[in-house]
Amino acid sequence: MIHLLRDPIHHTIPVSWDERQVIDHPLFQRLRRIKQTAFLHLVFPGATHDRFSHSIGVMHMSSKAFEPIVEDFRSTFGPKSITPDQIDYFKRLVRLTALLHDVGHGPFSHSLEGVTSAGKPIHPLRKDLLEHSDLPNHWVKERGIKDREKWLNERTYHEDFTLAIIAKMANDDGYLGGLPAQDIAALLADWIEPTEEFKEMCKVGPSGRWTAQPVLKALVSGEIDADRMDYLHRDSHYTGVPYGQYDREMLLDNVVWRPHPEKPSQLCVCVRRKALHAFEDFLISRFHMFLQVYSHKTVVSFDIILENALAESQDFQINPDLEDYVTWSDEWLLGRILEDRSSKWASFIRDRIPLKHLYTARQDERKAFQKFIKPFERSLGTTAWYPSLKNKSIAEPKGQGEIPKLWWRDCVSFLTKDARGAYPIYLEDRRKIVPMETHSLLLKSDYVRKSEFTHLYCLRGEEQKAIPWVERSGFPVKGGANGKNEFWIGE
């Protein structure tokens, strides 16, 4: 039985009975209560869409990409190169994996993870998650994990929670949506061991000479993945900006699977030469969305405000059993923050009062900025920068007033997921498989392979104290039109 869902981005989305059962599961329905883009709606009022609709969109895009790839594969290598049973299994597996790829996100999505990365560790260690959650230990690979002890003692994030929740959603036989939950998890994480049945199913091509697992995984998480194909269009639509638009049809019709030129037992993802510029446009779309939308100075300031609000909550932790975590929502967490009526951070979120943006240190200024902050230290246990002096030589002159409180956030936008020299996408040019950068002027050039910048903030009303202090403390702010040092004061 096929159900039809209506979506403003993809219009009509067909959903199978098995997929409908997964969508109706309470642990998936919770994604309705988690915004896709956290605080983005405080800058772009239309950006109130949720992870629920995005996840369904990713599922739809995964099959839109899969179908022409398989048709070309059979045409190129023969109808026996991939059997009807394999096609059916792969399509179901890729769609379910795409549907569940974000099921581990918590309230305010990536903004919540900033609390741990910025100073106060609220996420459990991986070893605790493996011990207390529903994630079976036999799913974890016995070999191939470098420095296992260090890996076990790393902090977990939504990707790890996704695997644990997939295991939690599975039935008593370990199946979810009619497929082994372990194989769904294996497409999302390299450290999950796929079942023997899946390994056997992945043998495709003449005499089963190639494994399809890497290219199946790339459909969900890669340089041309269903996740990016959906969120670029969806976030662009709801924010009202044009940056996320790309030539979807040209790209979908020209992504193919070919034998990996360096790994004889694997397939790799290729783009036909005629779609090279569509692919470059796809990369640029994501790059500009990060620069112009996701790293917007006001959006970033509310991430910092959230971190400080939660830093004040001494008992706020994510338990590794995830029993509480799966009940959390944006509204619940916001309500918890607003309960503290004495918290200025809570009032900033409630009344939409961002931090005062003082300056953005661009890529060529970041070394100078890092040198500037080196003599100071951050107060432990919070995300605030209370610049307690370690170097007395730059102590505040007597009578000049107290040192202001400042916050900064490093933002990085990558043109690609991998560094130059290890690029995972190839180009098919006149039946030859060549590295993408041999033909792409974008990847050949030094143009914005990575863009790094740092936003600097203070409390509203304190900029007249903060600006002179920063200037006196030695940060070489670039000269303005008149050759004088100046800050760019934004919202």
TL;DR of this structure?
The protein has 491 residues and is an alpha+beta fold. It is built from 20 helices and 15 strands. It has helices at 17-23, 26-29, 51-77, 84-100, 110-118, 126-132, 148-152, 158-169, 181-188, 196-201, 213-220, 226-239, 248-252, 276-294, 297-311, 330-338, 344-350, 366-373, 441-444, 463-472; strands at residues 2-7, 11-16, 175-176, 179-180, 203-204, 210-211, 255-259, 267-272, 356-361, 376-377, 388-389, 406-414, 426-429, 432-435, 450-458.
Q: What strand line-up does the widest sheet have?
A: 7-8-13-14
Give the uncertain stretches in residue-range form: 479-485
Number of strands: 15
Overall morphology? globular
- Class per helix and strand makeup: alpha+beta
Strand content: 5-15%
Q: Counting H and I runs of at least 4 residues, what is the number of helices? A: 20
CATH superfamily of the largest domain: Hypothetical protein af1432
Q: How much is the average pLDDT? A: 88
The CATH topology assignment of the largest domain is Hypothetical protein af1432
Share of helix among residues? 40-55%
Number of domains: 2
**How can the largest sheet be summarized?**
4 strands, mixed
Q: What is the CATH class designation of the largest domain?
A: Mainly Alpha
In angstroms, what is the radius of gyration? 24 Å
Which architecture of the largest domain per CATH?
Orthogonal Bundle
Throw out a few tags for this protein.
4-stranded mixed β-sheet; 3-stranded antiparallel β-sheet; 14% strand; Hypothetical protein af1432; 2 domains; single chain; alpha+beta; 491 residues; 15 strands
